[in-house]
Design brief:
This protein has about 230 residues and is α+β, with helices and mostly antiparallel strands. It has a single domain, classed as Glutaredoxin, CATH 3.40.30. Helices cover about 50% and strands about 10% of the residues. It has a four-stranded mixed sheet, sandwiched between helices. The protein starts with 11 loop residues before the first strand and ends with a helix.
Length: about 230
């Protein structure tokens, strides 16, 4: 008698909604990546755009001027506590935040365009994740202006993309409208803070929660998928 064939578990779909200038998004991504390694689950990740402040000029604004306009000359105790938490949690996941030295607060539309192209169907698996990591590091650690086309083209080239083509597409503002519409779609779903990780389009983990939260979410998504098959 032939042995029954066991159906392989279907991959979990996770939509990661985040913005590159959001420190919680980098921390949350690192926790999520840790959870993937711990669980060993098969997960398909789609990186979704979000802009914390779409009113930032296209070519950015000086970081100190921006922070002063948002928070005043003296940041609140709540803001200081948040920053201290980020700086204390970061080393455990290999992150180095250099908040005091960031020169520019960029508009992140161009960076989101690069991520969109990186996860196109013809791109190698994992390239978009690598570029997203590079963008976070470029902004928070290397202190680069990730709204600058030359900076973005170099990151693209360093990850095997055609830097000249990326430069051309960014100058032409290719897909900019599509990205803004995608951001509006997720805002319409009620997402007002990032990172937000949407599992199989059914439930979400919000904020920079530790890896354990995502391990549990993966198990929940797997259980739901098993019930439906």
């Amino acid at each position: 008698m032939a042995k029954p064939k066991h159906k392989k578990p279907e991959a979990i779909q996770v939509d990661m909604v985040s913005d590159i200038v959001c420190p919680w998004c980098w921390l949350g991504k690192r926790y999520f990546d840790m959870a993937l390694k711990q669980s060993g689950a098969k997960v398909n990740i789609t990186y979704r755009p979000y802009m914390l402040d779409p009113t930032v000029p296209k070519d950015g604004v000086a970081y100190r001027d921006y922070m002063t306009s948002k928070f005043g000359d003296g940041p609140s105790d709540k803001f200081k506590a948040m920053r201290e938490h980020l700086e204390s949690a970061a080393p455990d996941v290999g992150i180095n935040f250099k908040f005091s030295d960031i020169p520019m607060r960029p508009n992140t539309l161009r960076a989101h365009s690069l991520i969109k192209w990186a996860q196109g169907e013809d791109q190698p698996r994992g390239r978009a994740g690598a570029i997203k990591e590079n963008l976070f590091k470029a902004y928070f650690d290397d202190l680069l202006d990730i709204g600058d086309i030359d900076v973005l083209a170099k990151i693209a080239g360093d990850n095997g993309m055609d830097a000249a083509l990326v430069t051309e597409l960014l100058n032409a503002e290719r897909d900019a409208q599509a990205i803004m519409e995608e951001i509006s779609f997720f805002r319409g779903l009620g997402i007002s803070g990032v990172p937000t990780f949407i599992y199989n389009g059914q439930f979400a983990v919000q904020g920079g929660q530790p890896a354990e939260a995502h391990v549990q979410a993966i198990k929940q998504a797997q259980a739901i998928t098993s019930e439906q098959t």
